[in-house]
């Protein structure tokens, strides 16, 4: 028996076979070929297919996001068709006898070096495009499809790291547990695992995770341990643990149907975070009072084409109908950073967390944004829907988004389509700028929801994706974040709007009392945390001023 340890991300015990997912990297080896004619044909054939694929991507993108954004595929096509590029590849095949994929890789390497040394950021971006194009070309030469995780049976999924788009491509009903070598507990794959009730462990540290493929294992998501080929002792201990946890879950069921009310009578809203229709079941099962965060970008992730207006509408409508009149806050598409949506053709960035992401991307692609806004507005007549704008840093962004919402309404009106004219519009407070401007922003929107994941990352200058920094997240006091949150609560209430939390910290029961005392009105957590949070709220007495956390008093 071998035991591997990592950081638990979501509790639960899972037994099964380990399935190792190899990341999608083009492996190109130098092979010298004799038949250069044949190799040239392979190259030409791959080039034609890559061009056809790019033309298709362009047409789809044109439809969905308009000429400006779609033009990236034309640029890619021009790069492949470029004479100098073509000559360089063919010379390497004919003169050096390199195999076609190696010839492309070498050409890419040389051109990228030249581009990168030229200084201008525009040219540097073209270097990223060139890499993208060459990867596509090499994939065609090697006859590979874009990598998808195809699961034939239920497995424990292992990988060095998983990107949200990869996670979204697979059939999650076949994933018993997730074990990764890297990753961080605030990454979106970790959040997704929690939301979907999938036991998960990150930072397992086993260099050769891949060698363990197909072995039988048990994942103990409570303690962050993976038992490979477990012995009798381990099996017995883990069954006991499983039983004890099942009892706890059973006990929590007592809290279903009860209010989230403090000992002295203050009612708090406890909502659930979801990423799509699949996890809605967990939200309902756990008696969530509403949906505090629907991460709508997950509808776009892991697919080659963007969902159209009708598909988005269908998803939103389902959520609203199934929540039966309870509040549903849908966040507009928050792509970028680790949520890389392939069909957007985003350029590589030096600092994607500070880059073209989230509301910035939506405002750069107004047609795409309006498609989502129309879908949301159409759905708004099926329940209590509120729209939430992510990553707001300036009033200007709120104004521009509101203008686009008005345009989307106008388009629906012109067609005689119904929508809720008074739909609530709120923002996520997840940047230091939003905290500092919250007095102004509160006068412009209907509600705030604090995204502690990003807010903490930006306040602390701590990359939420970086496993090496995980200990900072674990061992520190959250005081800088809490101070920012107090400012946000005060400003929200000064303007008479409610304020919630939708980041992962909302589920930290050691902070619940602190949150309630600063004035948080609603907390939205992963579905499995709804009942523990309800239980916790029911033990808190807000009037007991002695328990009030006062930083000044601590200092004195
Ligand atoms: C957050 O930043 O706290 C948040 C809820 O959004 P996400 O985790 O999707 O970035
Ligand atoms: Mg965020």
Describe the structure.
There is one protein chain. This protein has 556 residues and is α/β, with parallel strands linked by helices. It folds into 3 domains: 117 residues, 3-Layer(bba) Sandwich (Glucose Oxidase, domain 1); 106 residues, Enzyme I, Chain A, domain 2 (Orthogonal Bundle); 269 residues, TIM Barrel (Alpha-Beta Barrel), CATH 3.20.20.60. The strands form 2 sheets. An 8-stranded mixed beta sheet has the order 1-8-7-3-4-5-6-2. Strands 9-10-11-12-13-14-15-16 form an 8-stranded parallel β-barrel, surrounded by 5 helices. Strand 4, helix 6 and strand 5 form a beta-alpha-beta unit. Helix 4 packs antiparallel against helix 5. The N and C termini lie far apart (54 Å). The C terminus is likely disordered. The structure holds phosphoenolpyruvate and magnesium ion (MG). Phosphoenolpyruvate binds next to strand 10 and helix 16.
Task: Write a short abstract of this structure.
This protein is an alpha/beta fold and 556 residues long. It contains 21 helices and 16 strands.
How many H/I helices? 21
Q: What structural category characterises the helix and strand content?
A: alpha/beta
Tally of DSSP β-strands: 16
Percent of residues in β-strands: 5-15%
Measured between the Cα atoms of the first and last residue, the distance is 54 Å
CATH fold category name of the largest domain: TIM Barrel
How many individual domains?
3
Give the neighbour order of strands across the main sheet.
1-8-7-3-4-5-6-2
Q: Tell the overall outline.
A: globular
Largest sheet: 8 strands, mixed
């Amino acid at each position: 028996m071998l035991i591997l340890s990592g950081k638990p991300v979501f509790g639960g015990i899972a037994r099964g076979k380990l399935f190792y997912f190899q990341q999608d990297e083009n492996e190109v080896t130098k092979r010298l070929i004799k038949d250069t004619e044949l190799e040239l044909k392979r190259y030409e054939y791959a080039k034609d297919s890559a061009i056809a694929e790019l033309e298709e991507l362009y047409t789809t993108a044109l439809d969905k996001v308009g000429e400006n954004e779609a033009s990236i595929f034309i640029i890619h096509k021009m790069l492949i068709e470029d004479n100098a590029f073509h000559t360089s590849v063919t010379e390497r095949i004919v003169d050096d006898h390199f195999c076609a994929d190696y010839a492309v890789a070498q050409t890419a390497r040389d051109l990228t070096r030249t581009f990168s040394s030229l200084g201008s950021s525009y040219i540097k971006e073209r270097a990223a495009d060139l890499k993208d194009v060459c990867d596509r070309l090499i994939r065609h030469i090697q006859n590979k499809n874009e990598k998808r995780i195809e699961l034939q049976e239920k497995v424990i999924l292992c990988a060095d790291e998983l990107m949200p788009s990869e996670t979204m491509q697979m059939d999650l009903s076949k994933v018993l547990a997730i074990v990764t070598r890297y990753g961080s507990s605030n990454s979106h794959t970790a959040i997704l695992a929690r939301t979907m009730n999938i036991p998960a462990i990150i930072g397992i540290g086993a260099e050769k995770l891949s060698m363990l493929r197909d072995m039988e294992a048990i994942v103990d998501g409570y303690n962050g341990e993976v038992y490979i080929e477990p012995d009798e002792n381990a099996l017995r201990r883990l069954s006991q643990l499983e039983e004890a946890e099942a009892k706890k879950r059973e006990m929590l069921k007592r809290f279903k149907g009860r209010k989230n009310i403090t000992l002295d009578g203050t009612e708090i809203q406890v909502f659930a975070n979801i990423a799509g229709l699949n996890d809605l079941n967990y939200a309902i099962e756990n008696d969530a009072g509403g949906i505090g965060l629907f991460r709508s970008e997950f509808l776009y992730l892991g697919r080659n084409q963007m969902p159209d207006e009708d598909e988005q509408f269908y998803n939103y409508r389902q959520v609203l109908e199934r929540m039966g009149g309870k509040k549903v806050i849908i966040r507009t598409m928050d792509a970028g950073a680790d949520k890389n949506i392939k069909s957007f053709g985003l350029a590589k960035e030096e600092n994607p967390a500070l880059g073209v992401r989230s509301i910035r991307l939506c405002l750069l692609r107004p047609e795409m944004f309006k498609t989502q806004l129309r879908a949301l507005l159409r759905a708004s007549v099926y329940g209590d829907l509120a729209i939430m704008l992510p990553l707001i840093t300036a009033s200007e962004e709120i104004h521009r988004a509101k203008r686009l919402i008005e345009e989307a309404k106008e388009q629906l009106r012109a067609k005689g389509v119904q929508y809720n004219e008074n739909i609530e519009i709120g923002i996520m407070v997840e940047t230091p700028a939003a905290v500092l401007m919250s007095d102004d922003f509160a006068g412009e929107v209907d509600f705030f929801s604090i995204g502690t994941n990003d807010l903490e990352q930006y306040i602390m200058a701590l990359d939420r994706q970086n496993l090496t920094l995980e200990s900072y997240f674990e061992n520190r006091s959250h005081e800088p974040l809490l101070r920012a949150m107090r400012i946000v609560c005060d400003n929200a209430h000064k303007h008479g709007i409610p304020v919630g939390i939708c980041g992962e910290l909302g589920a930290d029961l050691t902070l619940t009392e602190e949150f309630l005392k600063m004035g948080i009105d609603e907390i939205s957590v992963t579905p499995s945390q709804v009942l523990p949070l309800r239980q916790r709220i029911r033990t808190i007495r807000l009037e007991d001023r002695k328990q009030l956390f006062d930083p000044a008093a601590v200092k004195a």
